[in-house]
């Protein structure tokens, strides 16, 4: 997974380089800067002294000393002054300069804090947008594992509108799927008539349904359904037959061609390692993990029905018993095809991200 939001203390990240949200003096400060200097030890400060400070937006390299990483890339984010003083451009350039140094050093993995989002007061949701945009842009043409490290779950503030819509959808699905009319009838009868004989535990009437109830809600896309739908879409029965015999890889490649999307563009959009495409192209029987199949469904901008078809080919289904599936289902229905924003929401909900 080339880009991942993780919850951790950045000083514990086992990566080639961590990025420090420093101040202009580079002589240490509070927040993440203080934590990095404490963990790295006094030699880091010594090396920083020799660097002669750092302008806002620029980035400078030091060794990692006692930290588990090889390098620290120090960059100075802008102080938030309301947004009209070029803050966004300056913050973007911090990510670009830090990533350029990481690339020059041949780093395979880098961890960023959310620069400027602490004492410097940059609104967290906007700081996250800038970070995600710059990281995504960089990954379109580079191979690197980039972590955005959130010290607390509150540090990540996804787009409020999409998050609200997804949360409401999860709630709706949950209420709809877990209504048990039999139980509701028994409950009203109980309230009206008192406990019937043979029901010693009235509390059970109010319990959540058993987990197995969810199994009924799995929406498996049967071959019969595939054929019916393709017929509706004007395909010949032969076309439809070929299509149902198609493997996951074959369907993925067909969709790429239909959409005119390159392998590179698709890997970046799906948050998957570029090398994976070799496997997909060379092995018609390739079976991805579910998080990868879901990521491709989003990256390829599939409809809900197409996504279900692709998932079945990998041996999966979209289940209302799985919150992450509900999030993805909502996004497919409503045309939200940005894996990065979806992963922000999944992180916030403490669910596993999409990609490979
Ligand atoms: P700035 O001055 O650029 O705002 P801060 O250090 O105050 O820098 O905060 C930047 C971000 O780093 C904030 O989101 C803060 O919560 C986070 N942060 C602070 N300490 C750590 C840490 N040890 N690991 C990861 N993130 C941290």
Provide structural commentary.
It contains 15 helices and six strands. By secondary structure, it is an alpha/beta fold. The chain has two domains: 3-155, Leucine Aminopeptidase, subunit E, domain 1 (3-Layer(aba) Sandwich); 160-211 and 246-348, no CATH class. It has a six-stranded mixed β-sheet, sandwiched between helices. A hairpin with a 7-residue loop joins β3 (59-63) and β4. α5 (160-177) crosses α14 and α10 crosses α12. Adenosine-5'-diphosphate is lined by residues 9-11, 21, 31-33, 35, 77, 113-120, 149, 151, 155.
User: Mind summarizing the main beta sheet?
Assistant: 6 strands, mixed
Poorly predicted regions are: 199-226
Provide the domain count. 2
The tally of helices reads 15
Share of helix, binned: 40-55%
Hetero groups in this structure are: adenosine-5'-diphosphate
Overall geometry comes to: globular
H/E element string? EEHHEEHEHEHHHHHHHHHHH
Approximate strand percentage: 5-15%
What value does the Rg take, in angstroms? 25 Å
Strands side by side in the biggest sheet: 1-6-5-2-4-3
Q: Residue-averaged pLDDT, rounded?
A: 89
Straight-line N-to-C gap: 4 Å
E-strand count: 6
Class inferred from helices and paired strands? alpha/beta
How would the blueprint of this fold be written?
Blueprint: E1 3-7, E2 17-21, H1 31-40, H2 42-49, E3 59-63, E4 71-75, H3 87-104, E5 109-112, H4 124-139, E6 145-150, H5 160-177, H6 181-193, H7 223-232, H8 237-245, H9 248-259, H10 263-270, H11 276-282, H12 290-299, H13 304-313, H14 323-333, H15 339-348
Parallel strand pairs: 1-6, 2-4, 2-5, 5-6
Antiparallel strand pairs: 3-4
Helix pairs in contact: 3-4, 5-14, 7-8, 10-12, 12-13
This protein binds adenosine-5'-diphosphate.
């Amino acid at each position: 997974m080339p880009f991942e939001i993780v919850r951790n203390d950045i000083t514990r990240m086992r990566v080639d380089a961590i990025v420090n949200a420093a101040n202009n003096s580079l002589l240490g400060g509070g927040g993440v800067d203080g934590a990095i200097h404490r963990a790295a030890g006094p030699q880091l400060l010594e090396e920083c002294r020799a660097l002669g400070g750092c302008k806002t937006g620029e980035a400078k390299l030091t060794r990692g000393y006692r930290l588990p990483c090889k390098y620290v890339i120090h960059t100075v984010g802008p102080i938030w002054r309301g947004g009209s003083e070029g803050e966004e451009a300056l913050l973007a350039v911090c990510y670009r300069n830090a990533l350029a140094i990481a690339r020059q050093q041949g780093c395979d993995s880098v961890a960023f804090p959310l620069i400027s989002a602490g004492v410097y007061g940059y609104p967290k949701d906007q700081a996250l947008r800038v970070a995600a945009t710059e990281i995504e842009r960089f990954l379109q043409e580079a191979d690197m594992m980039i972590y955005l490290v959130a010290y607390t779950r509150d540090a990540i503030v996804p787009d409020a509108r999409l998050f609200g819509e997804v949360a409401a959808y999860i709630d709706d699905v949950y209420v709809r799927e877990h209504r048990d009319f039999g139980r509701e009838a028994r409950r009203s009868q109980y309230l009206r008539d008192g406990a019937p004989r043979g029901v010693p535990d009235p509390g059970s009437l109010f319990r959540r349904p058993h987990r197995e109830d969810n199994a009924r809600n799995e929406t498996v896309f049967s071959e019969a359904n595939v054929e019916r739908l393709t017929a509706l879409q004007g395909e010949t029965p032969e076309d439809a037959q070929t299509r149902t015999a198609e493997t996951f890889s074959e369907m993925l490649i067909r969709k790429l061609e239909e959409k005119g999307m390159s392998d590179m563009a698709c890997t970046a959009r799906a948050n998957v390692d570029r090398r994976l495409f070799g496997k997909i192209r060379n092995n018609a029987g390739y079976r991805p993990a579910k998080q990868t199949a879901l990521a491709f469904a989003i990256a390829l901008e599939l409809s809900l029905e197409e996504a279900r078809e692709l998932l079945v080919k990998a041996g999966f289904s979209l289940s209302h018993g799985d919150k992450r599936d509900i999030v993805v289902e909502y996004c497919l229905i409503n045309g939200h095809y940005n894996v990065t924003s979806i992963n922000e929401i999944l992180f916030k909900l403490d669910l596993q991200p999409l990609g490979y």
